[in-house]
Design brief:
Length: 188
């Protein structure tokens, strides 16, 4: 959809970032992938182009080597959505903070830092937000070991509901007042 200048956001991003930005479309929404060095610049560019509503930011663990950091912004005038992504290496997950562009990114970056271990350089208060004090590890990483699995392993090699014998059955009980032979076929 063209903006006030008559240009589409995708065309404007391609013109500005050239081969450094990769655009794709899914379900009518544009997704833009950029290198980490262009992250805050892309956020600023989208905001100037009318994508003023910051919706959310999170990370996606993509083993074995990286995390994708994803932000969703919205243009309230054109009702257009834009998904912005970059990738950071798992060994050193660092990215410039988006708080200077969208103040609403503050808690989202804190949560992403706490749950995935992605450090947002320049964040004004990058401290834990949700987990109890002294918690060790990053619980949304795919390699994080769940304490429940350590304390008591599942009986078998599969997760609940995946076994071949089905789930345990309950004792069959009839509702009160229903005769014991009700519903059974009688053979003559």
């Amino acid at each position: 959809m063209p903006d006030a200048t008559g240009e589409t956001i995708g065309g404007a991003i391609e013109e500005r970032y050239g081969g450094r930005a990769r655009l794709s479309e899914s379900f009518g929404e544009i997704t833009v992938d950029v290198p980490p060095a262009d992250w805050t610049g892309l956020l600023e560019f989208a905001r100037v182009r009318g994508y003023e509503f910051f919706d959310w930011l999170t990370a996606v663990d993509e083993p074995p080597d990286e995390f994708a950091v994803v932000a969703h912004v919205f243009n309230p005038t054109s009702h257009a959505h834009l998904l912005l992504r970059t990738r950071v290496p798992r060994a050193e997950p660092r990215l410039p903070s988006a708080v200077g562009v969208f103040r609403g990114a503050d808690w989202h970056e804190r949560e992403t830092f706490e749950m995935f271990g992605v450090v947002f350089d320049g964040h004004p208060n990058l401290v834990p937000l949700l987990l109890p004090e002294g918690f060790e590890g990053f619980p949304l990483r795919k390699d994080f070991v769940l304490a429940a699995r350590v304390a008591k392993s599942w009986p078998g090699a599969k997760e609940p509901g995946e076994s071949d014998h089905g789930s345990p059955s309950r004792r069959k009980a009839l509702p009160p007042g229903v005769p014991a032979d009700w519903g059974r076929e009688r053979h003559a």
